[in-house]
Design goal:
single chain; alpha+beta; Ubiquitin-like (UB roll); DNA polymerase, domain 1; 5-stranded mixed beta sheet; 5 strands; 36% helix
Length: 160
């Protein structure tokens, strides 16, 4: 069947080298969740709109529901699990918790990775600029105020 063929890939996933085979048409989100059991990458809309599937590819946010697993060959991929385990998200996670910015938690992994990208860049953004940065991540619970507060607090401290 077309699309069932497998492709060899070599990548760095959460700081560790990975050599494996992936189905040609398998999306990265499905590969991470089903094959590698990295379930922190959530599937919401599967159209790249909600941001729940956000991962970092070479340090830049990407929608894993729109990325084929074969496309990560030769690139470094970081998931919420990798950045959490390494401690790189500790400050952001602490601020999200302190401000109740992670209510149901479904959007949190995507929002944290989006926030990490901007905070790690060293940029100092206004509240409206932070809102623009996270505008591709949908959250049904918070109204975004607490999320913006958390990101701004970490940005102000210059950590991440």
């Amino acid at each position: 069947m077309i699309g069932d063929e497998e492709i060899a890939i070599e990548t760095t996933l959460n700081g560790k080298p990975l050599k494996t085979r992936v189905r040609a048409r398998q999306h990265l989100a499905d590969f991470l969740r089903q094959e590698l059991e990295l379930t922190g990458t959530h599937l919401g809309c599967e159209h790249g709109i909600c941001g729940a599937c956000t991962v970092l590819i070479d340090g830049r946010t990407a929608r894993s529901c729109l990325t084929l697993a074969a496309q990560i060959s030769g690139h470094a991929v970081e998931t919420i699990e990798g950045l959490s385990d390494s401690g790189k998200l500790a400050e952001l996670q602490a601020e999200f918790i302190a401000r109740n910015a992670a209510q149901c938690g479904f959007c949190s992994s995507g929002l944290l990775l989006t926030a990490y990208e901007v905070v790690a860049s060293g940029a100092q953004l206004s509240r409206s600029e932070i809102r623009e940065v996270i505008s591709g991540n949908m959250c049904r619970c918070t109204g975004y105020h607490a999320i913006v507060d958390a990101i701004q607090a970490v940005m102000t401290k210059g950590r991440c």
